[in-house]
Task: inverse folding
């Protein structure tokens, strides 16, 4: 597998090279559908990360829009996607809670500076030496943490206080309010997840998440469920 060492000294935004090679109407349709699907998933997620950071959801939207435009304009891959990463919710929330907004901004700035230095010094290839078990373990741990953070919204549970952040206390608190489980909300969430997996298996080229969002919105309107429930399914959008 090529490691890019032959061309890593060249800065070639893929947008410029792609336009120079020619851009068809068919490619535009495919890119527009992909962009819509990513936006539907990324925008609620960016708002959730902003709330976890202690700022307004609008700032998360600004960040997602600006970041997406910059990545698309300067990225080096035809299939690169720029948007918020769910794995960072845990890191952002912990940093914001411990060091405040100023400390979070400083952390983000230093992280960006480190990434620039890694790129300039051509040390990005060192990631190939990272053990696969470390990557899988980190990703799995983040996935479990995010899943636990969505149990409250998935079941429509009602907590009498703030939801605990740590994993075990969170599960204990949610178990204590199981009598408040909302069957309609739980059914809607599980149905959306089943629809996404079914489409991915039968029609992998179809925008499963986008279809599920539309179907869930229509179903919520029929069941008179709050719109925030839909956002919570797909982007961890807090109620409010």
Result:
């Amino acid at each position: 597998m090529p490691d890019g060492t032959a061309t890593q000294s060249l800065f070639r935004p893929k947008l410029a090279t792609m336009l120079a090679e020619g851009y068809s109407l068919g490619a535009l349709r495919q890119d527009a559908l992909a962009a819509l699907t990513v936006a539907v998933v990324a925008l609620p997620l960016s708002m959730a990360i902003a709330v976890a950071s202690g700022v307004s959801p609008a700032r998360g939207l600004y960040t997602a829009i600006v970041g997406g435009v910059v990545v698309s304009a300067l990225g080096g891959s035809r299939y690169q996607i720029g948007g918020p990463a769910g794995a960072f919710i845990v890191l952002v929330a912990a940093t914001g809670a411990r060091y405040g907004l100023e400390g979070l901004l400083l952390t983000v700035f230093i992280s960006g500076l480190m990434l620039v230095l890694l790129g300039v010094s051509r040390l990005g290839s060192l990631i190939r030496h990272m053990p696969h078990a470390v990557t899988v373990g980190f990703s799995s741990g983040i996935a479990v943490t995010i899943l636990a953070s969505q149990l409250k919204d998935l079941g429509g549970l009602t907590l009498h206080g703030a939801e605990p952040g740590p994993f075990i206390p969170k599960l204990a608190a949610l178990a204590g309010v199981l009598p408040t489980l909302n069957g309609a909300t739980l059914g809607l969430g599980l149905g959306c997840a089943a629809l996404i997996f079914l489409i991915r298996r039968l029609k992998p080229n179809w925008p499963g998440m986008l279809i599920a969002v539309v179907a869930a919105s229509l179903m919520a309107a029929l069941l008179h469920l709050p719109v925030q429930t839909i956002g919570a399914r797909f982007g961890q959008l807090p109620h409010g």
Observations:
- The radius of gyration is 20 Å.
